[in-house]
Structures are given as structure tokens and as C-alpha cells.
Amino acid sequence: MFEDKPHFIQTQLRFLRSIFSNNLNTCLICKETAPTYQTLSLCNTCASMIPWISKVICPICGRFEVCYDCVRKSNTYYEYSRSAVEYNETMREWLALYKYRGNERLESLFIKMFDYAFQLLLMSTSLKNYPIHCFTYIPLSEQRLQERGFNQAERFARGLSRLHQIPVIELIKRVRHTEKQSVGSWSNRFSNIQGAFVINEKEVKRINKKRVMRIVVIDDVYTTGSTLNEYAKVITAHLPAKVYGVTWAR
Amino acid sequence: MKVQLYAVNHSRDQNGMRIDWKWYVSFKMQVDVQYWFKQRNHPYLIVLKPKLPLGIALIYCKLHHSFGPLKHFNQDIPQLTKNWIRFMLLHQEHVQLSEKLQKQLTFQMVQSTQYNNGMDSTINPNLEREIKQSIQGRELLLAEFIHVLKKLGCTIEDQWSSIIQYLYLNEQIEIKSGVTMNLKKSLPWLQQQKEITCHRCGSGKENMYQTLCLFCEEHCLYCEHCITMGKSRYCTPLIRGKSLSYMKSQSSIIKIHPISNLKHWNLSEPQLAAVRTACKFLNETKHRISTKKPSYFLIWAVTGAGKTEMVFPLIQQEINKGHQVMLATPRKDVVLELQPRLQKAFPYLHIVTLYGGSPQKWEEGNLFIATTHQLLRFWQKFDCIIVDELDAFPFHNNEMLQYAAMKASKPHGKYIMLSATPPTQMIKLVEQDQLPHIKVPVRYHRHPLPIPQRVSFPSLQQICSNDQMEFTSLKGVLHKYRVEKVLLHHIRETIHRGATSFIFLPKIKYINPFVDYLRTKFKEVNIQGVSSIDKQREQKVQAFRNREIEILVTTTILERGVTVPNTDVYIIDADSNMFDEAALVQMAGRAGRSMQYPDGKVYFYSNEKTKSQVVAMKQIKQMNTLAKQKGYLKEQYYRKDRGDFNV
Questions:
Q1: How far is B175 from chain A (nearest CA, A)?
Q2: Fewest CB atoms within 10 Å of the CB: A66, B35, B280, B444?
Q3: pLDDT value, residue B644
């Protein structure tokens, strides 16, 4: 409104400032200047807010505390799952920024955090000597995809595959539009998700079925594990496979 | 989103050649075909296939390629395509199509029978009027537009595209892409640069981010800056409704009080003077029509002058003229607080309040009260925009909101800005007499503003070199500097007078140690700390208002809005760069607000006497002198000889 300098001088000044300032990074979350040594390109305050899962207590779901759900569950079709962070209020906000607001710039941050969870998975004993064959992701229904404009799980899977040179295969198709898993109650979620997935025949035909495949499923949040379980059920019915999960938050 | 790009021609020159082509974009070709073939003089329609992303299509539309004289169109299609590709290459650095798309490009001649599935695409005139009414003067993203349609009862899937197309062809709306690219020369000898701006919030390249877009299947830009209000993309349409004048309830307004009669507003003499000048400004018709910029008026009123009360007569005058008025304030609680007061003052008026999550989002009215962010959703709608506290947090240094405020007013609109501490550039303009303004130098109770006293005090940063300030170290250093006594003495005095104390610190981390320290000194006094991360913030502020808390330690978050009678203000570390002169003036303005206790005390505790402290003190003193010169102060300040008046 009240620019005291003509426009072209302003642009030149801005250009000069961008050359001479050594702090070009801005924090992805709060837009403060971030120190260059932060690999996540966050400022120190935001980076310190991440509740990393440094010690895995529950060997099944990768929880940071003693887990009663996994003991209760009887027939699981997946091996186990690992997560990068604890799903608290801050993390919920961050994910909402990306998922619902659609700020796709945060993608790089999430992929870097996913890498941490993937490393947790690799460190677990049974996977030390065996390679991972492929990544796959939970598909979104067409309606949700139109709403959101992208599938966050797919983006994460593609990002991880770029980092580790492991292919992404679209193993499953979604046939039914389900309610958001984040709104259902615990028991509701089981019934909600059943029968929502169907195997993608085209891809499965191309896979050699003689050896056991190790497949990693990427999803954003693990709450009850019902989505992952349903998914693994469909895959194991068609393929000799071991299914692992990597999620961003637990 | 992908759209069809096509050209229309419906006139021939004497030789039967078609020259004058017009370009349009289409969300639904069917509507366009019906629209054009309804017209008498056999139009030619040429469609470019395949569909293009909206941003690109709109640029081509603007570039306006002319085919040159044509006679027998059908024979020339390959020629035309070649022609077009040459044209595209010419503007290559401007608009880039992916190679895949470039290869597919062909033209097609449209017959009247094509795209016709027997449906009539015209809208029910009632619905059309309703839609026009509810989107007039607004700037909406597609998702918001669809939301409006749903509210009006258009629930049929995909109906929106034909409605948009219909309104677009009838020139009721303007379609822009959310983000645009332009070429701009910054200096004549430099190369042209691509300038990317968001049409909605005006932010530039630095806030843009490119991703693979699902809707246009290309790399597509989106604006990160205004993403909290919805995603503005290169390929999403931004729909600007043409502003009609809102006359609906004008007849129902009873002009109870002609503006010349200002008595019933209960304003003080200085307030009246300001209102009269502002009214004169509003009544002024512009002489220079060539300047399309809106004009500004600043009311520079000291803290506690009763700014809000001055707004009422201004609103009334504008409403009487049949204008639409926007009152923008920075905070939601102010909006909610103002609504009942204004409704009481103007019972016949339809007042619309807008804020994040407001239920009245799409309503129309004479008077809008909104948080400043909501201005983004308007386009050339208001005749008069009143901006309250324009220097406060969201407005200050925020180009987005300034851009939003600019575009929300009509080209000849008027701005009235209210502030106690205008930004420095504006003060400069005021001093140079380039900005019409009026100063209200005295509070409504007509006592002078309290003058801050500076007390030498070690800086908190010195006291705690570590990140976490320890209570013991504060005590130790305070002892060392022998200044503890002064601070405690002042606070004791305050308590003795029965006043509450408002203590401002520059950073949140100092609050808790400081509170602990004071608690050891004043055992029977209720001392609390409040910061922006405090969950009980509102309860604590309320308790302070009720005088249950006697000493409140806080940061700049409470620098405005909180008004408690009989308060003394302490600003610790006043030389910190967290406190600029505006903040200092605002904080000092917390003291002496009420009629009963007009003389609160204000202390600047600082190690150095910085420029901002000097400027803040100077500003306050200047205002007091001005008030005295104009004769606004109470008689008691004019007694005896002039030397006695000590400001």
C-alpha cells in the first residue's frame, strides 16, 4: 500500500538481498529462518517438537509404549509395522497441513521422516539379511482423490522408492468408498474397511510367484492396524508374500 | 482443471472474409455451442483439441491469436494448425506446453449439431438471479463456488460447469486462473523475467510451489501463502462476480438521524472534530477520474480515544448513501464483540459477520464486519472500507492483507484507517502532508496521556546468558546492580495505591522465573504470568480484568485490547528489539484509561536508551502538546501560568 520505493528498485533490492543473505532456508512449518544444518529444513523449535520413536517396545506395531491391541488381535496377516513418530496433537496438525490443506511442499519433509521409519524396519532382526522387493501403498477411492488432488501414501511411497531404488507396485485397487478411518470408532473401523480392496490382477500376473516376496506397505497413520491387516489379507491370498508396514505416525 | 479453448467469429467483411476472431475458454462446450448458434449471423466456431490446462488456455485467450483472413475454413485446417504452432513458438518462454500436448494439437470446426444432447443449458432465471446476487463482488475459488451453488440448491453433479459457462458467456463473471504468469521487464536493459503471482493474495514467486497436478496432468503451480483459505492453483478457476449495487434493503433503512446531527452518538469534542473531517472526506467526490486508485484517510487517535465510537457515525453516513461498508479488524473476538453493539446502534441493518468458521459466510448485507483475512474473498465490492488497528499483527508488514484490502474496494472506493500507532511510512506521508488525516490527540476523558519514565536496569539477556533463566541468578544480579530496590519500590507504590500492575517482558521464557521471583517478594499478592502458549490465557486475562490478579506478567501479546482501569505499566527490557515504538506506545497506552484513574504510571526499564524509546516518548508528548494547544484538555491543566503544565 505504501511502498516508498519504485517497483523496479524494490525487485532489485530483493534480488540483492537474496544473494547476500546466507540464510536462504525457511522453516517449512512456521516460515522462520531455519539454520542450514537442519536436514529436515525446519527451524530448531519446530524440529524439537517432533516426537521421534527412538525405542520400539511393541514388536508388532512398532509402538513406543506397551501395546495391548496387538496382544488382543488374533489373526494378523502382516508381519509387523514400524512408525517414525508418535501421533500427537502437533503431528496431527502437520499432517493436516499436508493432507487436507494440500500444502505439498511439506512432502519432502514427510519423506525424510518416512525414511527413519523404514530404517527402523530394516533394523529389526528378521529383515537384516533379506532385501525388500517392493513398496506398495493404500489406494484412495476416486471420490477422495478428486477432493484431495493427490494420494499422500502414493507420494510417500514414490519418494521412498526414489531414495532406496526399490520399485513401487500398485498391487491393490480400492473398489468401495469407505468413510474416513479417522472418524470411526475402534470396532467400527474393522467392519468399515472389510471388502474394500481387490487385487490388481494386471500387476500380479507379472510377478514371479515361486519365491516369497517381501512387500512394504506405506500409509500415513497406523491407529488400529485394521487397514493394513485387510490389505495384507488380500495380498497374501494371491501371492506368497510377507507384508510389512511402514507408517509415518503411530 | 482442463478446459477447451475455442475461437468465434460472427461477422464477415465486404469480401466475405472472416477476420475478427474472439477467443474463449469453455468448461462445457455444449453450453457454448448453444449460446453461439442461437445468434443470428451464422458464427464460425473453431475448437482447439485437446483440452488445455486453464492457466495456459487463459493466457492464449489474452494473447489473442488472429487467424488472418479466411474464406473456406474447412480446406485450411492443416494450414491453421501450422499457423497456430508458429504462434505458440513465438510465445514459448511465456507459456509452455508439454511436448505430448503439442503433438496432439489440432483444430476442429464445430457444427451446430455437435455437442448437442438435446438438453437446454439455460438456467432458470430465478436461480440465475440468486446466484448473481450471492456471488456479486466476491472472488471465489471453484470449490467455494460449488459450495455456494449447493447452498442455493444445485446439487446435481457437474451442473456447476454449465452454470459457470453460462455466466461467463453472459459476462456476469470473470474467470481468472488462481496463479498467473506474466512477462515483466524489471529494467529496460535486462532480460524479461517470468513473473508469477497469485491472483488471490498477490504473493509472488517465492511462495509458489510446483507439483504434478491430478486435475490438469501437468506440472502445476500452487500458492502456499494463502493456502489456509483454500488452494489457489495455476489450473483452478478463480471466479469474480460482477458487483451489482446492493439495493435490497436500502428502502427499509429509516434515515433516523441525518448526519449533521451527531449529538446522539455521545461523542466528546475531539471525537466530533475527527468525525466531521472524516465525513467531509467521504462526501468528497473525486476530481481526478483518471487516477483509479482508491483514496485513503487516516484517523490517528491515541490509545483510549474511543476509536470504535467514532466509527458509528461514519458507517451511518455511508449506509444512508446506500453504500456497502466493510469494517475490518484484525481479531475475531473484536468482530464478535462489535456485532451486538452495531446491531443495537443500527437495528434495521443486516449486518454480516465474517471470520474463520462463520455461519454467515455467503450472506449479503449492508454492513460487513470481518477479520482482515476474509477480505481475500472479495473483489471490488465495497464503497467504503474501514480498517481498524491497521498496524496490528496481521496487517503490519503483511503484503497479502494489504493486497486483499486493495482489491476488495471499488476503483473509486474510500478507505478509512484507524490507528494509534501508524507504521513509519505512513507517519512520513502524514508529515509530508500527502495523506489526508486527522489526529485525535486526547482520550475521551480529556486527561493527558501518562508520560513514560525511563529507569536504568540491567538487561535480562545479560542476567541470563544461558537459555533458561534461573530465578536465583536474577536475584543475584539484581542485588549486584542494586536496582532491585527501585523495581520493588515502584511495585510497592502501585500496590499501595490500590492499582494493578501490568508487567511486559520481551520473551516468553522470562515469564516464569520473573513470576517466581516476584512471588517471593510479595507473598500475599496474586501474581500470574500469561503467554501466547498458555492454555488458560483467557481465564487469566478475565481474572485480571476482575482485579483478582493484581500483577500480570506477560509479553507483547497483550499489548492491545486489554483495558483495565487503574493500572500501572512496567516494561522490562524496553531496549529489546522485540519492542518497537508502536509496541511501546501501545503498552504505555494501557495505563490511565478510566475516568476515575486517569493518571497511571508507565515505566521503561532498560539498559540503554534506544531510538524506539525516544520516539515513543516523543510521540506521546507531541500528542499531549497538541491536545493542549487545541484546548481539548480539562481546565485543571490550564490553571496558573503556562510553565506549570509539565508534559
A1: 21
A2: A66
A3: 47
Are A102 and B428 a contacting pair at CB < 8 A? no
The average pLDDT across B29-48 equals 80
Q: Are B633 and B601 in contact (CB under 8 A)?
A: no
Minimal Cα–Cα distance from B230 to chain A, Å? 7
- Give the helix/strand (H/E) hosting B109: strand B106-109
Look at phi and psi of residue B113 and say left if phi exceeds 0, alpha if psi is from -120 to 50, else beta. alpha
Distance CA B218, CA B410 (A): 36
- Is B379 in a helix, a strand, or coil? coil
* B68/B588: higher pLDDT: B588
With cell 537442519, the residue in question is A38
ipTM associated with this complex: 0.77
Burial label for B146, CB within 10 Å (0-12, 13-18, 19+), is middle
Cis peptide before B340 (omega within 30 of 0): no
Task: For residues A41 and A58, state if they share a domain.
Answer: no
For B453-644, CATH gives 3.40.50.300
Q: Which residue among B186, B213, B227 places its CB closest to the CB of A12? A: B186
Pick the CATH number of B263-440 from 3.40.50.720, 3.20.20.30, 3.40.50.300, 3.10.105.10: 3.40.50.300
In this structure, which amino acid lies at residue A167?
P
In A, minimum Cα distance to B422 occurs at A2
Domain with CATH 3.40.50.300 in chain B: 263-440, 453-644
Count how many domains chain A has: 2
d(CA B512, CA B500): 19
Write down the pLDDT at residue A195. Answer: 72
Helical spans, DSSP H, in B247-306: 269-283
The gap between the terminal CA atoms of chain B, to the nearest Å, is 65
**Residue A155 and residue A35 share a domain:** no
Nearest to residue B507, comparing CAs of B454, B588, B577?
A: B577
Per-residue pLDDT band for B70 (boundaries 50, 70, 90) equals low
Task: Assign residue A245 the CATH number of its domain.
Answer: 3.40.50
Residue A37 sits in the same domain as residue A68: no
Q: Residue B249: pLDDT above 50?
A: no
